[in-house]
Write a structure and sequence with these properties.
Elements lengths: L1 E5 L8 H11 L3 E4 L34 H9 L6 E4 L2 E2 L5 H14 L6 E4 L4 H7 L6 H15 L4 E5 L4 E6 L10 E4 L3 H10 L2 E7 L1 H17 L8 E6 L5 H11 L3 E4 L15 H20 L4
Helix pairs in contact: 1-2, 1-9, 2-3, 3-5, 5-6, 6-7
Length: about 300
């Protein structure tokens, strides 16, 4: 079982040091969340909202640091920790710019980055970027194929319905295949993951709900003839985190990775400008305890 630490809503300046602590403790990876802006006049409904009006669970002033700038900084202070986005709204970003950013991060990290991409739900972000919201799913599916073409090294090109790139060179190219994980648990998202993804990243669910989505995903993988592929299945579980829980999830459901947030078991209070000693004192005990009692026992 691979343990990916979720970092949404954490303070931006804490995250580079958090990456160091996770690297030293032996976690598999760290996930960075994504949003471009929070519109003052937000009409789109957040699909995971517990509120009747569909508003997001975060405040408008919540920080969403740029994922690839942040991942680049974190790769420079770690040796084995992997990084991915959960979930990057790729559909309203320019294809070539995104391909360049991820390839650069892959080179600087010696291949320790993956792209976790989703179709997105906030129409306002697409409008502000001048991108069509209505065909975002189809464009994302094609974007996955186009990104892989752009990362091929040497002279590359891609010709599709939404993206048409003549022969170009784009260097540096990644030193190895960049995994692309597809996020979301709608039928469309699960089908997209099964068709073109190297894996799937879900939300956090009660165990039985997680099993339902994973069973659907496995059905789509069989439909596309990919049931024997090396495919990552990553999601969180709403249950007390124990080694036994994750061993059963791997054996009985086929999960290959899970989302965790060890410090959520306590209440770290290191401020945004805390020094390294204060940061370690606040977070390290929770990170190390979870690594010893759960992560190490699931390897």
């Amino acid at each position: 079982m691979k343990f990916w630490c979720a970092t949404a809503f954490m303070k931006t300046k804490q995250l580079v040091h958090i990456a160091q602590l996770l690297d030293e403790a032996g976690y598999h990876g760290l996930m960075v969340s994504d949003h471009l802006v929070y519109p003052k006049n937000l009409q789109s409904k957040y699909p995971y909202s517990p509120h009747p009006d569909g508003r997001p669970i975060w405040e408008p002033e919540t920080a969403w640091p740029d994922p690839w700038v942040l991942i680049g900084a974190m790769t420079s202070v770690t040796k084995q920790l992997n990084f991915t986005t959960n979930i990057y709204v790729a559909g309203h970003r320019p294809l070539l710019q995104l391909a360049k950013e991820i390839a650069t991060a892959s080179v600087l990290s010696d291949g320790r980055v993956a792209l976790g991409a989703g179709a997105g739900w906030m129409k306002e972000e697409f409008d502000l970027q001048g991108q069509d919201f209505s065909n975002r799913g189809k464009r994302l599916t094609e974007m996955v194929e186009a990104l892989r073409a752009m990362w091929g090294g040497g002279w590359v090109e891609f010709h599709g319905e939404y993206y048409d790139i003549p022969a170009v060179t784009m260097e540096p190219s990644p030193p190895s295949r960049v995994p692309i994980y597809i996020g979301g648990h709608t039928d469309a998202a699960l089908k997209r993951a099964a068709k073109v993804g190297d894996g799937w990243i879900g939300n956090a669910y009660p165990v039985e709900e997680a099993k339902m989505y994973i069973d659907k995903l496995k059905g789509y993988l069989r439909e596309y003839g990919r049931e024997n592929d090396n495919f990552e299945i990553i999601c969180g579980l709403y249950a007390m985190p124990t080694a036994d829980l994750y061993k059963r999830a791997e054996e009985e459901m086929g999960m290959t990775g899970t989302l965790c947030m060890p410090w959520a078991l306590g209440n770290p209070s290191a401020g945004d400008h805390a020094g390294l000693a204060e940061m370690s004192a606040a977070y390290k005990p929770f990170i190390d305890d979870f690594a010893t009692n759960v992560v190490a026992k699931c390897q």
